[in-house]
Amino acid sequence: MGALQPLSSRAQVDGFDTTYVNDFTRRLTGRLYLSTKYNALRIGGQGNDAVILRPNSKVNMGIGASYRALTLNIGFGIPFVNRDQEVRGRTRYIDAQANIHTQRWATNLFLQVFAGYYLASHDLHELGWQQPTQRPYREDLVEFNLGVSSLRILNDRRFSYRAAFSQDAWQRRSQGSWLVGGYSTYFSVRGDSALVPTALWSGFEGLARMERGRFMDLGPMGGYVHTFVYRQHWFATVSGAVGAGLSTQHITYPTAEGSAEQRNSGLGWHAQVRAAVGYNSRHRYVGIGFNQENIGYLLPDQQHFRWSVGNVRLNLVQRFNRRVPQVDRGIRWFRKKVKEPLSP
Prior knowledge:
The protein has 344 residues and is mainly beta. It contains five helices and 15 strands. It has a single domain, classed as Lipocalin. It has a ten-stranded antiparallel barrel with strand order 2-3-7-8-10-11-12-13-14-15. Strands 1-9 form a two-stranded antiparallel ribbon. The two termini are 26 Å apart.
């Protein structure tokens, strides 16, 4: 009995409190899903409505599977849903977003390249443009972003992010947790002319008329998450975190002589919102999840520029009472190569 007690105590500390959370990472989890990924640019002026630019995002459907720390999803566009290029124009893109949720950490990784945006804030008549699309369209506008945000879950024994967002756990009782962490992003945007159309220049000064911009920021972040559970199975999860830190900016903007460049350092901010709602049980999960990162910078003359990246996904999930021996052997082999044991 005495030799077994330390092992039992260690499992109690390292794992979830099963009164609140059941862990299903050692079961094969399969899913069907519908999803859309997106981003947006917002430029604010003085005494004028902001200019908002969006890509023409697609709705995708796909299949996926999870086992232990591994997840693979394969998605493709739905042809009869994504036929609106005559309205918003065409967007070409590379969009890679990863959400890594362990027992103790919730991490977002994103890499996007989008070419072709439409103006969501103004119509063709306001700008005096003549185009075949129904919305003002900028084929020349190209955006690139790369970033990471990571949050430590302080109440990691009684609360699980994975239950709502990775579908390989079950939060059986209401519980929440404070979150602490940080973020780092790089963002660039360029066009053949100013991002703000010339018809709107009266409300925008200097750097807000940018033709090109490169932005980097880094800082701490903190927040809170809570899952509300009704009769063990029905759940709603809401998470929010905010942060502020150092921002560097390199902006090219038009002048009477042609164009000029300016570099600034100052304050940037970061806000993250996650939410999910649905039904969860030992074998099945049905739910819809939302995840968005918002990043902003203060430009001179009290003007601002911000962008966002996010996704919405509907998941239909089935868990199977099966193991994958090949993956188990690979994990055992990897553990032998590191000095400290890894938690599943």
